[in-house]
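Lest this sound abstract, we let one protein speak, letters for residues, whole numbers for local backbone shapes, and leave readers to judge:
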Amino acid sequence: MKRMVGTVVRGLRTPIINKGDNLEQLVPECVLKASEAEGFTIQDNDIVAITESVVGRAQGNYASIDAIAADIREKYGEDTIGLIFPILSRNRFGICLRGIAMGASRKIILMLSYPADEVGNHLVDLDDLDEKDINPWSDVLTLEQFRELFGDAKHTFTGVDYIDYYQSIVKEANKECEIVFSNNPLTILEYTKSVLTCDIHTRARTRRILKANGVEKIYGLENILSAPVNNSGYNEEYGLLGANKATETEVKLFPRNCQPLVERIQAVIKEKTGKTVEVMVYGDGAFKDPAGKIWELADPVVSPAYTKGLEGTPNEIKLKYLADNNFGHLKGEEQRKAIAEYIKNKKADLTGDMLSQGTTPRRLTDLIGSLCDLTSGSGDKGTPVVYIQGYFDNFTK
């Protein structure tokens, strides 16, 4: 009898995870208990995924806004700081801005991209730009010009006016704040030669442009808390990138040194079950909200660590193309068997079929991380571990 179910994804509930908890022991125990309670069998090529949030919590990778301020003071001294391309988020950036403002000497030039930030949070609709005959790729706007043209800029879902919100954070630190709107990194050099780049996935390009055009001092968020400050947490590779608000005065940083963790969890499950499962740590998945136009991709990478079986891209044939073309003359079970046999025969060399028929060669970790992020959510589901079965199966199994 042929199987009637393909990929199965389960969010596994765990105890509340806190600093010092041993995930190498806790995660395999949760997997084994869930297997017994829910009646599924652990198999080779299953996937165990752990959200970066609980990994960071277990590591105790936290830092205070005072530590952020101290690092900013050390790097910028008395300079006016040009703060460019931050995303619009209370959780992700607002808390970091509080520390940055505390560390600034006297003034921050806050340069916002428009109509939206890097991950799709909009300050203004494209239709409004067209109506006002504004070109976001060439036009630079002051705060007064922006307000005159577009008025309030309340977020689609939260109702927060991030322009006012970010300005208020800087002013609460008793620092001057000037706001400008531009998508050209070079605009900031008209105000200051000391820059902090706050973009995530475009940061290398932004830095390259500024270095080629006279910037004198430049750091990125990845350089802030890239080493411990006053015994704070840190991330040597990503710094403040991927940070989340923990309390009003503290951030949880993106976890560090995750590779030994995933490899040890894989080894423990192998010891206990005899099966080789793949293990990954995942953060934000790469998907877009069609209504709000927001990309859920504020972490620097989807997966900071994963076992070897998750390297590369899927090796797939486009099933619907085969059904419509190669085997369109067949129906029902006869068509299914013919397609299954074709896939078995072609599985050794799929590159031509895959690319010629439009199957997007995305990385496995990005696809699986997105699946996990959607499964676990960011609220109160209490399932920071996700267990996936059948992901590598195809139509022949």
Remarks:
- The domain at 62-252 is CATH 3.40.50 (Rossmann fold).
